[in-house]
Amino acid sequence: MRYDVVVIGGGIVGLATALQILEKKPGTRLLLIEKEEGTAKHQTGHNSGVIHSGLYYKPGSLKARNCIDGYNMLLDFCRKEEIEHDLCGKIVVATQKEQLPILETLYQRGSENGLKNLEYLSVEQMKEIEPHVAGIKGIKVPQTGIIDYKAVAAKYAEKIEKADGRINYNEKVYSISEYGGVSTVVTNRGSHDTSLVINCAGLYSDKVAQMSQQEKINLQIVPFRGEYYEIKPEKKHLVKHLIYPVPDPNFPFLGVHFTRMIGGGVEAGPNAVLAFKREGYKKTDFNFQELKETLLFPGFRKVAAKYWKTGLGEYYRSFSKAAFTKALQELIPEITSDDLIPGGAGVRAQACDVSGGLLDDFSIIENAQAINVCNAPSPAATSSLAIGNTVSELALKRL
């Protein structure tokens, strides 16, 4: 069978893209390929489940536009499909005077991105919301929420199949070739002919993108593992909502924070350390070839040379529970090492260009055969329907 579209990747972005295509053009012959046994097995299923509001992102950027649009689309979808979520709100806390200009920038960005009812908080006002927090000034962001993105992804998949889309699990892509305007996607289970390939392969999106073109792409995925602790049940009262630090503007990471989870409990983290394997969720996970590719990539070497001190600090926190606790105590001084239970971990597919830039915005690369979503880290889950809308419109112009 020849397909109109083959989508590679069963994470939340690939699923949302497939769903949007089928809803906009019913009858499209669509196949989604996922190498795991089910959906949301990697970035989607390992994140902290936050519904991001759009506070952090540069106005006009793909992240800002897609986060705001995706936020509203996600909430509409969850209400319609009765998926549990909670707009509990969060506070962003400055703990040092040096952070106040960055806090001001966040407030301005949020306002420019259309967030309503942002509110500066004094020490006393922060204590009213989060009695145990420490800081000198904060911002209240009422739009932020929590959700289980695995449940959202499962609903996307259910609706794809109801719309006569096909999903193949346990199928890994080996190569993509083109002849006479038809692309052939070769997998461990055979091959599929299609008019268009859409690459939403997450941690392997750069490798899949390279399959569909001869010229070398200008970026590489660098995997960063984020490790979490959970707070003991008897200490959950220390966190009422979500508590975030002021982020380091040099990095596309938000810093260790406290997150209420939709299923109960509170998570603390993550840090951000280089993973020695693209799907390396444990400290002991190692793939020589993948690590070699990372270390030899000129862009990563430039990042490492510039920010090695920060990187060492992240690794120190990874192996030292006391250091991790100390970072958390900047926000909640009452937290102790004994209050923390080892939690899960996720791996962020962070694109890095050859000049040493960690891409802060979403990246979509088109060529004759394919549309490649090559950088879609946080807030991609929140933005999934908006990213899917963007990619589906690009796809439908070709069909």
Give structural attributes.
globular, 399 residues, 9-stranded mixed beta sheet, D-Amino Acid Oxidase, Chain A, domain 2, 8-stranded mixed beta sheet, 20 strands, alpha+beta, 3 domains, 10 helices, FAD/NAD(P)-binding domain
Describe the structure.
By secondary structure, the protein is α+β, with helices and mostly antiparallel strands. The protein has three domains: 1-88 and 147-218 and 362-399, FAD/NAD(P)-binding domain, CATH 3.50.50.60; 90-142, no CATH class; 219-353, 2-Layer Sandwich (D-Amino Acid Oxidase, Chain A, domain 2), CATH 3.30.9. Helices cover 32% and strands 27% of the residues. It has ten helices and 20 strands. The protein has helices at 12-24, 62-81, 100-112, 123-129, 149-162, 205-211, 288-296, 298-319, 321-329, 384-396; strands at residues 2-8, 30-33, 50-51, 85-86, 90-94, 119-121, 137-141, 145-147, 166-168, 173-179, 182-187, 190-199, 219-231, 242-245, 257-260, 266-269, 273-274, 340-353, 363-366, 370-375. The strands form three sheets. Strands 5, 6, 7, 13, 14, 15, 16, 17 and 18 form a nine-stranded mixed beta sheet that branches. Strands 1, 2, 9, 10, 11, 12, 19 and 20 form an eight-stranded mixed beta sheet that branches. A three-stranded antiparallel beta sheet has the order 3-8-4. The protein is globular and about 65 Å long. The model has no long low-confidence stretch (mean pLDDT 95).
Low-confidence runs: none
Helix content bin: 25-40%
Mean pLDDT: 95
From the 3D structure, determine the CATH topology of the largest domain.
Answer: FAD/NAD(P)-binding domain
Count structural domains: 3
Biggest beta sheet summary: 9 strands, mixed
How many H/I helices? 10
Number of strands: 20
Using the coordinates above, name the CATH class of the largest domain: Alpha Beta
Alpha carbon gap, first and last residue: 17 Å
Reading the helices and strands in chain order gives EHEEHEEHEHEEHEEEEHEEEEEHHHEEEH
Task: Output the radius of gyration.
Answer: 21 Å
